[in-house]
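Sequence, please.
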């Protein structure tokens, strides 16, 4: 979790977004944690998936920029720390780095990849999933419309990073990774509550561009627009998620040396 102007509250997150770790489980299968490994969970959130990785006999370290999430992960027994994923300070100590639903909050993807490459042992894995090109497109359009109506250029506030599969593959390769997969997966996602709850949980960077007194009305206007596209005839909401899933292995360190084996 990341980015200034996005406030994270572990209880609100659990109420409106408990599907996030639940739907991240296929990424755990792709990671294939092995007993005895040391794995970094980058953007560990409340630690739900960190606990599952640890259950494989792995030593897990979690980092997240949100103190309330780190506190929750710690209460689950995870060695979690508040840290910016764009400034990782680890050196050649992990067999793998895992990340679910966090990298789209980190705009400086090159800084993230440089930090991940430094944190991995030679040959270490980087496996994860985050929002890819086209993710929450309807939501972006509706929020942009309500900001524009209030005289605000939304582009400065659209902080999310949703690359294409090709662009992310190229970035991974530029940082010394051999890429086995980068795949865009459309994943319409039923919401456990509703679009107001989703916007309250995730749309901080856009809605906080407005004076506090105007935010609730702007959010409700966005919800009314989004109902045309994302609410069904039984009033259930489905968010227009697109995931970018990837798996890669560090094939040289940041100084250009190839791994021993
Ligand atoms: C996502 O998980 O795709 C996402 C969550 C919050 C804001 C934007 C995207």
């Amino acid at each position: 979790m990341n980015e200034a102007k996005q406030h994270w509250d572990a209880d609100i997150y659990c109420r409106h977004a408990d599907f996030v770790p639940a739907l991240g489980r296929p990424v755990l299968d792709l990671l294939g944690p092995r007993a005895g490994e040391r794995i970094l969970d980058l953007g560990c959130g409340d630690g739900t998936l960190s606990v599952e990785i640890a259950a494989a006999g792995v030593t897990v370290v979690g980092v997240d920029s949100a103190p309330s999430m780190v506190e929750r992960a710690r209460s689950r027994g995870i060695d979690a720390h508040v840290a910016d994923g764009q400034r990782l300070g680890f050196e050649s100590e992990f067999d793998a780095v895992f990340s679910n639903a966090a990298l789209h909050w980190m705009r400086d993807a090159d800084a993230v990849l440089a930090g991940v490459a430094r944190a991995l042992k030679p040959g270490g894995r980087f496996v994860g999933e985050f929002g890819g090109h086209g993710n929450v497109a309807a939501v972006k359009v509706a929020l942009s419309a309500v900001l524009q109506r209030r005289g605000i250029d939304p582009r400065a506030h659209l902080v999310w990073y949703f690359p294409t599969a090709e662009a992310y593959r190229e970035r991974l390769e530029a940082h010394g990774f051999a890429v086995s997969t980068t795949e865009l997966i459309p994943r319409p996602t039923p919401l456990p509550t509703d679009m107001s709850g989703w916007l309250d949980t995730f749309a901080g960077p856009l809605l906080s561009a407005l004076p506090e007194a105007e935010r609730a009305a702007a959010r409700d206007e966005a919800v009314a627009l989004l109902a045309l596209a994302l609410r069904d005839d039984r009033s259930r909401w489905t968010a227009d998620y697109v995931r970018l899933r990837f798996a890669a292995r560090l094939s040289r360190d940041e100084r250009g040396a190839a791994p021993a084996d």
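The mean pLDDT is 93.
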